[in-house]
Every structure is written in structure tokens, then in C-alpha cells.
């Protein structure tokens, strides 16, 4: 099957959506509405849905497939640039001298992206995710959507098991402590500026940090995680709300607005067509 078979159709959708995020949201929304992609099989003999984790694995493997292909093409392009100028090599790159015939005045040099640069780019992407619509406070980072917050709290390498972590979440307070080889430490003991829903909050230990996922009691943008924090610039917040984050009632309202907008557009087009017909008619008073 040709990989570019549907490119023209996808390009039209992408032009309409105007961003990669909303385009992908439309794709996953289609899978949600029209397929069983997000449904879990009740048993191994079920024909509807996927076993737990399989759908995520499919998305992850497809992402890695094209990510690897991109890296391969990038490296191939660099290796094919045999006539590159002999300029200074940036510190993030390493030089590879290729063997050439003895009558060549100078060896040809090819720049390849080093592992250090790739690691730096990965860290930058990771940091951006952990501070999305939030902030880096040194001892923790936080990101937010309109309805929830993720907090990332670094821990020492000796913290390897969840039983070494104690997390307490109250409507207006978060407490995080660890017990390691070097003793007990209180990492966080702060109050929130707004309430959260403790029963719907979760936490996990990643190995590098404790991640706390908070559910906001009210849908609103926070200008700080804790009451003692300096405020962030709320004008820089990405206020786009994904349709997947909407409740069923909000989904219905959005669909109703879309239908009404479509009807208004049809009426407007019909009126315009009728006006043009009248204008072109021999009975039009100003013809």
C-alpha cells in the first residue's frame, strides 16, 4: 500500500485544522467516534476493542517508526554531503574523516550529529512538556491544561520503590516526602491557590522524579501552582482546549454550534446565489 496514497486528503484536513495538534485531535476523535480503537476487550476471545495497553503500543510503535525514518534520512543526507566546506565544526558535532585517494589535496569531512546533541534535544522536548503552561521552580516543575495539573518532583537515585515515597493530597495542600539511604526528606509541603479533587488525583514514581497528577475542582487556568509561588504570565498560556478534554455535555454543545453554523452558512450561500440570479436577470432594475 502506498504510504502517500491519502496525502491530498490529509493535506486538505490539515489546512482546515491549521495545526498539527488539532489535526491529530481530529484523527483520534474519528477513531473514538467511529471505531472500537479506545475500547478494551473484556476477555481474550472478544472481537471488540483491544487488550489493555495494545492501542497505546500501536500508536507508540508507529511514532517510533517514522521518528527513526526521519533520523535515518537526516543521517543519510549528512553522509551524502561529501562536498561540504571545511569550516569549523560546532562543539555539539564530531568530525569523521573519510578515506580518499592519495592525489586528493585534503580529506573530505562529514559532520554527523553527536549523541550529546540528540540527548540535549530530547531533554529540551522533555522539559517543554513538563513546563507546558506552567513553570520550572527548581525543586519541581509543573504543567497544566484547563482541567488538570501534572507536578514533577526530582528525587535522588536511592529512591527506587513507591514505598519510599509518601504523598498526601488534600483539596488545598500537597505533601511529598521520601525515605532513602540518607534519611527522610520533605520535598513538598505547600498549599494550592485553588482546590483540587483528592479522590481523582494520582501519583507515580518514575525513577527520576515523583509525578503527581492533580484534577482541578474547577476548570480554570492557574497562574501559580502554590500560593507562595510568583505568578506566571497567563497571557502566554496556550488556551486551546482539545475536544477530548470536553465533557459529554460540552461535546453536545460544540456539535450543536457546528450544526447551527453550517445551517447559517447554507442560508447565507442560498441568499447569495439568489441575489446573483436576480442581478443577472433581465428584470433587474439596475441592469
UniProtKB/TrEMBL annotation:
Gene3D superfamilies, per database record: 2.60.40.790
Stretches of the chain forming a coiled coil according to its record: none
Biological-process GO terms, alphabetical: protein folding
Molecular function GO labels: unfolded protein binding
Top-rank lineage group of the source organism: Eukaryota
Pfam families in the cross-refs: CS (PF04969), Nudc_N (PF14050)
Ranges where the CS domain occurs: 135-226
Keyword Phosphoprotein found: yes
Keywords: Phosphoprotein
Keyword Phosphoprotein recorded: yes
InterPro entries for this protein: CS_dom, HSP20-like_chaperone, NudC_fam, NudC_N_dom
GO cellular component: cytoplasm
Xref: PANTHER family: NUCLEAR MOVEMENT PROTEIN NUDC, NUDC DOMAIN-CONTAINING PROTEIN 3
Name this polypeptide is given: CS domain-containing protein
The organism of origin for this protein: Daphnia sinensis
